[in-house]
Amino acid sequence: MKFPSTPQEWQTVASHFAQRWDFPNCGGAIDGKHVHIVPPPNSGSYYYNCKGFNSIVMLAVVSAKFLYVDVGKNGRMSNGGVIAQMEFYRRLQNGSLDLPPPEENVEGLPFVFVADEAFVLGDHLMRPFPMRTLTPEQRVFNYRLARARRVVENTFGIMASRFRLFLTPIHMAEYKLNHIILAYCVLHNFLRQHSANYAGSVGPEAGIINETTLTALESGHPGLPSLSARDVRLRYLEFFAGRGAINMPDNL
To answer: Which residues form the signal peptide (predicted)?
Structure first.
């Protein structure tokens, strides 16, 4: 699992995103899932989440494969608490990921990652506009973001479909859980690179995850984002509606 560590490596990831999903300057899609588990003895409600089952949380940054995985936070923690403790997220916030500067990016836009409503809009983290009263331009932005973010859903879906461990709540010793899940992520990356049949045989349903095995985090309610974060999203919106426009579905 190779995590980019230089601007040049991030640009390689961004080039792949731009070619495949028409989202420039993007270092990956971020998502989190509750992984169902049978709780360890005497753990009480420590792992019991707000959705009514026991879990640990798996957060991932994905391009064509896993770039970064954080697993092991107990499901009882709030989404904000889990995300705030994610090492990648802390480094994204404090500027220590060594991302490419805007002057090296398409249209001079900041380098970003794409996520859903569970995450907070930031200078380097794009989430969709709220679904109520969308303007046509905002619909375009949301479509472009959702199209790029689909890669992380598909990755979770392929892994859940191919590794039967995820079809039922995982029942094993607490100290083994994190290592086993991380091992499956590394194996997924290896098979994506070396086996032509690994993903292809799963079929178009790969991105549809059985909600009894990997369950999405709840949408966050982070309050008002910063002015600079809103400005970055607006600049991407203007690019997608102008020079960076692509053919859109008729039913958008």
So the answer is: none
